[in-house]
């Protein structure tokens, strides 16, 4: 059974994480599958919208640390790095439907989505410093823009978690519903977007994103520091402690 389910229906490309036994922790193969889907979405005119989904109890627990560490240096060939840029530069509207845990990149990826819908079970956390590393996916730029510096520092420096209601209040989440309602709402919004003139929607997205042209530069700068910290003693000790739990 594949860990990423891809389906194209009525102009909506659904990317559903499907690794429940590991709480949708992202492996390098999962990144490769998502990268292929995002590349397809960028190039295929029949795809109007991309919908990212997880399981009822977990959107994503973040990176599969063992797999991530085994993948080598964070360069242009690294599937995780490729995913960050493909997500940030996706020309089609991105919708996320989030329930349960959204940890690390499970939260930072949402900063690149155009619409985010969450179940009341959603729990978000950015525990980078707790692992001895730093923010990624341009979250050091995008989160302060969205929620203000002090609140961003609360989540990026202290690594404190927040729930769906807090995500809605700060503007990360568009709407909060029950778990049972989430998929239907996300699909409804995806169909609504897909029914609109594609050129108008994609041009509007490009204009909305025009003020964030420094996102790719921020991703690159973060990756340099992330790799430096990843190789350091503090991070190695924290990760070793994580695996001993």
From TrEMBL:
SUPFAM superfamilies: ClpP/crotonase (SSF52096). Signal peptide: none annotated. It is found in: Peroxisome. InterPro entries: ClpP/crotonase-like_dom_sf (IPR029045), ECH/Chromodomain_protein (IPR051053), Enoyl-CoA_hydra/iso (IPR001753). CDD domains: crotonase-like. Its main location: other. Keywords: Isomerase, Peroxisome. This is Enoyl-CoA hydratase.
């Amino acid at each position: 059974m594949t860990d990423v389910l891809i389906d194209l229906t009525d102009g909506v490309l659904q990317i559903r994480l499907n690794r429940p036994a590991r709480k949708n922790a992202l492996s390098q193969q999962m990144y490769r599958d998502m990268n292929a889907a995002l590349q397809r979405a960028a190039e295929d005119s029949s795809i109007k919208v991309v919908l990212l989904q997880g399981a009822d109890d977990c959107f994503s627990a973040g990176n599969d640390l063992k797999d991530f560490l085994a993948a080598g240096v964070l360069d242009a060939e690294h599937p995780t790095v490729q995913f960050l840029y493909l997500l940030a530069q996706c020309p089609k509207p991105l919708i996320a439907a989030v329930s349960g845990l959204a940890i690390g990149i499970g939260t930072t990826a949402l900063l690149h989505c155009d619409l985010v819908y969450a179940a009341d079970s959603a729990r978000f956390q950015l525990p980078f410093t707790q692992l001895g590393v730093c923010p990624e996916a341009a979250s050091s730029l995008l989160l302060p823009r969205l929620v203000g510096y002090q609140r961003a520092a609360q989540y990026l420096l202290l690594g404190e978690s927040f729930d769906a209601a807090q995500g809605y209040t700060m503007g990360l989440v568009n709407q909060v519903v029950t778990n049972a309602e989430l998929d239907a709402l996300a699909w409804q919004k995806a169909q609504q977007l897909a029914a609109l003139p594609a050129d108008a929607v994609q041009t509007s997205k490009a204009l909305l994103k025009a003020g964030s042209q420094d996102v790719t530069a921020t991703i690159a700068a973060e990756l340099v520091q992330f790799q430096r910290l990843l190789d350091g003693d503090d991070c190695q000790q924290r990760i070793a402690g994580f695996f001993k739990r």
